[in-house]
Input
Amino acid sequence: MSAEENENSETVDEAPAEEAPAEEPAAEDAPAEDAIEEAPAAAPAAAAPADDAEPAEVLTPKQQRKLDRSIHAGEARPQRSPEERAAERGEVRAKAAAARSRSRARSRSKHEAGEGTVPAERVEGAKKVRQGTVVSDKADKTITVRIEVVRRHPVYEKVVRRTATIHAHDEANDANAGDVVRVIESRPLSRTKRWRLVEVLERKR
Output
């Protein structure tokens, strides 16, 4: 065999080898089209993890104001003096204080006092009057009175019971343990006595 025949035979042998890979991509194109057709069906599955994604970060009011200022594209406000800025801040604070006062007034009117409570309003110069139960009368001219206050919490709506113990002056030693009495606020009569017995409402049975 001559050298030219050997070269021709090699080129003939190489040609089919080069053509064979050219046919394989045609076979691979079919699965690609199948994959494209199957892609819409798989899309909902891929979109599902998006629902389980973490929620957006919650910004604090300060961070929100800072973000709003950073994206604000309006016209700049005119230059103001420190006195003008202070006056503006005072107006804003006065409006906020008035809004708080109105809100608290509505809250007080909405939540009525529970049973057995003493009215919170107090006339200027008037003395406090309380009703309670005598828990001890051992001391001379002195009784220990337990006062129970039942009020509804202004925020949580829960009925809260509070107990306070006071010492009251009983000049005639009239009250006994277990009696329901009414006491009134008075000047300091001793180190612990600031109340005075008015009357015995109910005697212990």
In short: The domain at 129-202 is CATH 2.40.50.140 (OB fold (Dihydrolipoamide Acetyltransferase, E2P)).
